[in-house]
Fold Plasmid replication, integration and excision activator.
Amino acid sequence: MALKAAGNVIPDSSAYEYRAVQVEPKMVRKDPEDPNSEQFQKQKDGTPVWSIDCIRVDRASGNKAIVTVTVPDVMEPDVAGPVEFSEMIAGFWVSRSGSGMWFSASAVASL
């Protein structure tokens, strides 16, 4: 069971550049014991959620990291290369087996 740490943050959009590498549907398992129970994750209104894998480049240092940004959209976002996101937030997660960050946005803002 993941233990969510308190506090989400809004990343400074001027500090990072995002380069989209691939887009995949976000999948969830309806039954944790059954690997064949994966389904597309959808919002309450039925909008599919997509995982956009990006290379995040720190503009100041040039350091790079691979991050996944989840975005709801009726159609699969057609992105490759530089991308900007609307209303991006980041959060931290902690569990007994590790920790990490997650990124979410309301939409792909521009290409």
In short: DSSP finds no helices and ten strands in the chain. Residues 3-110 form one domain. The mean pLDDT is 87. The CA atoms of residues 43 and 49 lie 7 Å apart.
